[in-house]
């Protein structure tokens, strides 16, 4: 079965991103870590700032349910610029045209693209006969085992420094309605990821593999395991995000995902006199 992109489907996907980001911030701030994240909430939109290196520093959902006005953009820009950080908006191509018109007039710059993928779980069948026995849900007392594997993978290494702050990864582990999934090889936590289920939408994210364990098929196996589990739990759609042209893109296409749309990240520097690139 082929899913056809329309405003309703795009809204559902973007709203799922909003829900996930908010649950992440709540888990982060409720855990008593040494750091915290801030968010700015609108009707069907959310802006997040979790520190200069936080990967979810962005505004999502803007323009999906109503036109965008100057007042909203003023709030978003003040929110980010107060941290000396560029205002960041992730734009869905089905957002209201007012979003692009206003951001163009206010000096926003195109920074990057990302792919959002969707899968009809009702029609999906696994390619493999059985799940990979090395993959399972991580236990509560395995938080740091999972966290270190995820952080090492994102850092393109096998081990993270003892001084590295892992609050963000720990928040991912503790998110509401989410399951941390771990892949073990010879007793080592080699890879992991998150499966979040909200209503009938399953979201796969934070997939990461330690450097020495790549090309072992672990990401493919993690995708397969999470899709099977989500379908068993009654989810009807699955989504995932990848960088264009990445190994992850090829893996999700092999799993049966179809490209829903391409999002654009646009940014407005905190100071017009300085470059925001390389921050």
How would you describe what is shown here?
This is GNAT family N-acetyltransferase. It comes from Tigheibacillus halophilus. Residues 133-279 form the N-acetyltransferase domain. It holds the Pfam family Acetyltransf_1. With 279 residues, the protein is α+β, with helices and mostly antiparallel strands. It folds into 2 domains: 7-116 and 262-268, Aminopeptidase, CATH 3.40.630; 135-261, Gcn5-related N-acetyltransferase (GNAT) (Aminopeptidase, 3-Layer(aba) Sandwich), CATH 3.40.630. Helices cover 32% and strands 28% of the residues. It contains 7 helices and 11 strands. Strand 9 (201-209), helix 6 and strand 10 form a beta-alpha-beta unit. Helix 1 (7-30) packs across helix 5 (167-173) and helix 6 crosses helix 7 (247-255).
Topology, element by element:
Blueprint: H1 7-30, E1 38-42, E2 45-49, E3 59-60, H2 70-81, E4 87-91, H3 97-105, E5 109-120, E6 135-137, H4 143-154, H5 167-173, E7 178-185, E8 188-198, E9 201-209, H6 218-232, E10 237-242, H7 247-255, E11 258-268
Parallel strand pairs: 9-10
Antiparallel strand pairs: 1-2, 2-3, 4-11, 5-10, 5-11, 6-7, 7-8, 8-9
Protein name: GNAT family N-acetyltransferase
Organism: Tigheibacillus halophilus
Domain N-acetyltransferase: 133-279
